[in-house]
Every structure is written in structure tokens, then in C-alpha cells.
């Protein structure tokens, strides 16, 4: 991947509606319908697939505003208010994690998934009735949350470490702890993430100036007393499959963990060693995980061009790229933890920001956003649009791919594959920016569906004041739940008293069959 493109891509992908994406400028009108790549690939004809990893650009109609919305709540009273997680079970229990800060408090980053300093809490409801709440201990941070089953909620918390070695981001180390709560908020069990590293798991790779070969050192500060040490905002994501917890985390490089019922580690697997772009503050390569019905796990991780050589040096095997120019590594692991294969996947010649990955039978779906040059871009030469790639789960070949354009710049923030096989993408559309730090027009939250045949169905446009984005979605039965941010700082357009310049948030739901009507 081109280093300059990816630097901008990752900075953008981390920003919420408070900042935009790409490197363009202009006024807030729709892009002309003739917006196409300068040299587009041939159109899809019949059953003939598009050229691998190089899909055409598809213009999508703007969805109607959401109708008959049952608003869960909105957070608007604090200086900055944000819902960072949302989970729902089949019995109607829905939980969210929220964080608040006052104007007199420290300036905190809404672009970070987790950071100490916020007034943070977990709140769980049945319909509109709150049934319990949970606040982390002083200094601790709720990193992620998932429904384990109809009666248990699983929390992942970052707890300040007593380890003082090394140089963590923001000057503090954290350790991960799992907490299992029952339906009334009582703690059933707690367990630290214990992972005594193998000697080669502490290898750290970097490049010296003017060198084409990676340099290897031993990063002993990544572990202390058998527990991984994490910096602020280091990636850690929970996922539950048929009641079994999994964790994808940037601990000793990129690792995936499967847990027993007592929350001890059943097995773990390193798929990429530690290197610079996993620990660079806001600028990091991200990773995603998908679990198949038979328990096989796929882990996708973003890479720069030079990072492929790091993988090869560490594992002493090549990282095959059957698509010639892909920049997402994908490791497939059996349900017992044994490696099944690894390959490069994604879009050839694009700077992708990875957001979601799903198994569909034996194939993988990758989705996110990509910035690229296009005629009539929303303010310059480049623009962000969303993408979807169909990947052969055995070979890594991209069998089909598509770019999606709604209105000006478009970003995918979340995606879900429902139990019924419906693929929904959510995010933000319709904004322009002068650069990655200067959004100059409002955007709006969107949700749309991509069918098995590749047809795109616009489902919802979020009708809220000023700038908005849909950051998370989940489908349970025939109901779609979503969390969203609105307002937020928009360069050049803040009110002089700045009363509308700081991010607010909300949760809502609606019947899935009503979307798009």
C-alpha cells in the first residue's frame, strides 16, 4: 500500500463525524452522475464476473429519512456525549456503553475507541426501562461489551497496570480483564487475560533509515507477569459465537484468543508480529475477525507494503498475494486453534480502511471504505467511497468487488450480516472537506443493504440536526438497532458560542421490514 495514501486513510478512518475523510475541498452539492474512475473496468454483463479486485463504481440513490422511528434515547446534555457500544439479545435486553465529559474537564478524543478520563458507564434496558447499570472502577475503562447469551453480559475492561517499564502511548500501561454479569448486573466471574508469551512472540520489527530489510528486537515490555501490556486505544475487540467468547487484540502483535466457560484461555494464535503501525497513537493498522459456523476463525489485518516482508521474516514463509496488489492479510484458523492458511486479499490498487468481515458459506466478505482518484471528486482529486469484496476462503482470490457511491464522500462505520443472510452497511454520506482535518459541509447517517446479486437497496437516511453518522448496527429478529453521533465540530461552521460544536449521541431502533419504504 502507498504509505502516503494509507497514512491519510488511517487518520480518516479513525475520525467520527467530527472530522471527514480524504483530501479534497469544495461546496456541498451532489457529485455529477458521471463520476467514474478515469479508466473503469468493463461493466458487469450477465454472470460474467468483474475483473478480480478491481470493481466498477456504482452510484446509489439517497435513502429516504427514517420513518416510524422509536427513539431509545439521546445524550445531549454534556459537553461531549458518546455511545461507544451497543448490544442486544433475543429476549429484548439491550445494553449500551456511554461516556460523558464536561467543558471544564480534560480534552478527550472522541476518535479513540477507549481512553481514561471519561465518566463512563454500562446501562442495560428492557424496552425503555433500565434494569441495571455498571460503572468501572476508578481508572478502569470499558473497552468492549457483548451479549454472551440471554442472561449474561460480557465486559472487556482495561485496568491500569503497576508495570512502569517501556514507553507506552500516553505514558500508561493497561491490562485486560473480562467481567461476566448476569441479567441483573451482578458479577458472576472476573478473569484477567493471562498469556505467557513464547520467546518469538515478543519480537518487534521496524525499518532503519534507507534499509529495505526489517530489523528485529525483543520488546519485553509487551508482557509483565504473564499479562499483555496495552497502551491507550490499543485494539481489543470481543466477539461471541454460540456462547463462546473470542478476543481479537493487538497484544503480542495481532493475536486471537478463544476462551473456556470459566474465561480462561482455551487457545491463542499470533497471526502478525509486533511492528510500528500497531502502536502509533491514532495512526494504526486495524484488524477484524469473523467466526464460521464450524468454529473456524478468519482474522483480517491491514498492512503497508513493507509489512509483508515483516510477516515473511517472522514466520519464515511468504505471504501469498494472488490478487497482485492487495494490502489486507487474512489468516484462517481452525476451531481447535490450528492454522489453516493465510493470504493477501482486498482491492488491487486501493487504500482501504477495513471495517467488517463475514463468512458466507466458504467465502469471505470484506467491507469498508477506500480513497481513490476519481473525476468530479467532492472537493479535489480524491474521494472516499465504500467497497465490498467477495473473497474465496481457500485461495484468497477476490472473485468480485464493487465500489459504492451515495453522495459526495461516503464512509462505512459498521456492517452486519444477519442470521437471514442480509448484508447491511452503515456509516455517513454527503459531506465534503478541505483535508482530513477540515470538514466543511454536513454529512448524514445512512444504512443500505447489498443483496446476494450485488443490488444495493438504500434503506435509511438519518434525519438529525447538523452532522450525523451511524456508528454501529445490530439486527435481532426483524428489528434493527443502531447508535449514532450528531453535531460535532465542523470546521468553519461552528456557532460562535460553540454550543453545537461538541459531539452528541443516541440509540434508536426500527422494524427492519419498514426500512426503505
Automatic annotation (TrEMBL):
Residues 1-20 form the signal peptide. It comes from the Bacteria. PROSITE patterns: PROKAR_LIPOPROTEIN. Residues 21-32 have a biased composition (Low complexity). Residues 21-54 are annotated as: Disordered. Keywords: Signal. This is Lipoprotein.
